[in-house]
Amino acid sequence: MATIIRTTVLLCLLQFILPSLAKQNRTLTGYTSDTVPKVSLNSTQNEPNYTAPYFPLLGFKQYPNNPILGPNKKASWESAYLYNPASIVIDNKVWLLYRAQNESLVSSIGLAWSTDGFNFTRYTKPVVQPSEPYETKGTEDPRVVRINGTFYMTYTGYDGTLAKLCMATSTDLVNWTKYGPILPNITDVNYRWDLPINAYTAREGWSKSGAIIMEKINGLYQMQFGDNWLYSANSTDLIHWNYTRNDLPFAAKLNVWEQALMESAAPPVKTRDGKWLKIYNGVGLGPGGYVTGSYNTGQMLIDMQDAPRGPPVARVETPLLQPLTAEETKGQVDNVVFSEGLVQFRGQWLMYFGQGDQYLGVATAPLQP
Ligand SMILES: *[C@@H]1O[C@H](CO)[C@@H](O)[C@H](O)[C@H]1NC(C)=O
Ligand SMILES: *[C@@H]1O[C@H](CO)[C@@H](O)[C@H](O)[C@H]1NC(C)=O
Ligand SMILES: *[C@@H]1O[C@H](CO)[C@@H](O)[C@H](O)[C@H]1NC(C)=O
Ligand SMILES: *[C@@H]1O[C@H](CO)[C@@H](O)[C@H](O)[C@H]1NC(C)=O
Ligand SMILES: *[C@@H]1O[C@H](CO)[C@@H](O)[C@H](O)[C@H]1NC(C)=O
Ligand SMILES: *[C@@H]1O[C@H](CO)[C@@H](O)[C@H](O)[C@H]1NC(C)=O
Ligand SMILES: *[C@@H]1O[C@H](CO)[C@@H](O)[C@H](O)[C@H]1NC(C)=O
Ligand SMILES: *[C@@H]1O[C@H](CO)[C@@H](O)[C@H](O)[C@H]1NC(C)=O
Ligand SMILES: *[C@@H]1O[C@H](CO)[C@@H](O)[C@H](O)[C@H]1NC(C)=O
Ligand SMILES: *[C@@H]1O[C@H](CO)[C@@H](O)[C@H](O)[C@H]1NC(C)=O
To answer: Where are the domains of the chain?
Structure first.
């Protein structure tokens, strides 16, 4: 009897009490390395047996051992919060470029790699840091594609007043060349939570969240960007981008959970029939059972051949991912899942995301037959 009680107490401790204690201010230092496995123009991308998806790609579930990465108190640049990762499969490893904040909440971009998709080793130094006047308060929220062997990273440069979508390139994921803001003179809008009706005010010079289509279609690369509505821009060289000021948005706000804001997630993935599956993040106004202001991740099907500037061909009505866990519902910002990476690896889909603007998690989904 005593043994059973002792065992029960022990199990209870292991199952409930210890994990919840461990979750308080978890730092998750994990594995770090002063050197990075060599990536070059010759490196392979994706696994040889990569299977393109079809729309919709469903069945995402939060990995039960999330978070998989968190702040590291031993390195000041990533000591406060760590979240919002881009992901890509190179040389049979998953690579993450993630946003990390120091104690002054200034963001840098860090690099980590893994051979199983869950257990990551991080590089001790940030790979992109504030260095320019337009990014004094941070280099944030990377998204990455690789085209002709070069990595193209869109990220947000923030100077405390304006967010500006910036470009950087690299061939090894470590050494990045900055090209500065790529969409000057943009006007985005800001949802006005303080007004009783659906209202927006212009946000001059504000741009964010660029997700690039990784193939040239009819001579042009395309990108969907924006931090309230999705807009489109195109380019011939991925460095210089054209857009039309005050253009119509790429996609109307349709679902109840995206009425306040829509923002690109990972770069779109080509489907078996040559369209593109685009994941995105949305913010709702309250109705429909979604917490007011919560960030959820959804999915749309877009057609770059016949509708390169929108609208989407189809959309999934309910989110793929919703804030559910303690790290997601209570954080630096409450009720946030924010995805920026989607890869296929070792027989499943892995979607990497920020949890409550504080930790880094992953959700898995099965491959489609
Ligand atoms: C977690 O960190 C915050 C901010 O540093 C602090 O206020 C809080 O007391 C900490 N919680 C625990 C359980 O240590
Ligand atoms: C790529 O492979 C070629 C042929 O094997 C080799 O000559 C070249 O040095 C490699 N380039 C890099 C950047 O590793
Ligand atoms: C955070 O980083 C910024 C920019 O590098 C630096 O100015 C600031 O002192 C850092 N804060 C801390 C607490 O290290
Ligand atoms: C995680 O990765 C590290 C570094 O590669 C390795 O030493 C460790 O054994 C791995 N742990 C698990 C559980 O796979
Ligand atoms: C970084 O990349 C730039 C541009 O490609 C190159 O000129 C420079 O030599 C590289 N630096 C290192 C340390 O590899
Ligand atoms: C922004 O627009 C103004 C007015 O049209 C123009 O004078 C300025 O050169 C533009 N700046 C850029 C960076 O395109
Ligand atoms: C942008 O549009 C202008 C005018 O149509 C064109 O001359 C230019 O080549 C375009 N630039 C890019 C990078 O596509
Ligand atoms: C990549 O290579 C293709 C095929 O050679 C070419 O059409 C395209 O312009 C290249 N893209 C970039 C950004 O260099
Ligand atoms: C490329 O962008 C320009 C500027 O916004 C626009 O006028 C044009 O229609 C776009 N072309 C395509 C094919 O998206
Ligand atoms: C693809 O190959 C990897 C090993 O390279 C394996 O782990 C994975 O299960 C394979 N995927 C499928 C769908 O067979």
So the answer is: 2-366
Counting ligand 3 atoms within 8 A of each CB, the residue from 74, 99, 102 with the most, and so the one to mutate, is 102
Report the distance separating Cα 316 and Cα 293, nearest Å.
Answer: 20
Residue 173 near residue 151 (C-beta atoms within 8 A): yes
**320-346 residue pLDDT tens:** 999 999 999 999 999 999 999 999 999
For the domain covering 2-366, report its CATH number: 2.115.10.20
What single letter denotes the amino acid at residue 335? N
How far from chain centre, in Å, is Cα 187? 23
Q: Is the CB of 42 under 6 A from ligand 2?
A: yes
- Residue partners of 131: CB distance under 8 A and separation at least 6: 178
Look up residue 342 and give its two tokens.
């989607």
d(CA 222, CA 207) in angstroms, rounded, equals 16
Whose Cα sits closest to atom 9 in ligand 9? Answer: 309
Whole-number Å distance, alpha carbon 19 to ligand 8 midpoint, is: 50
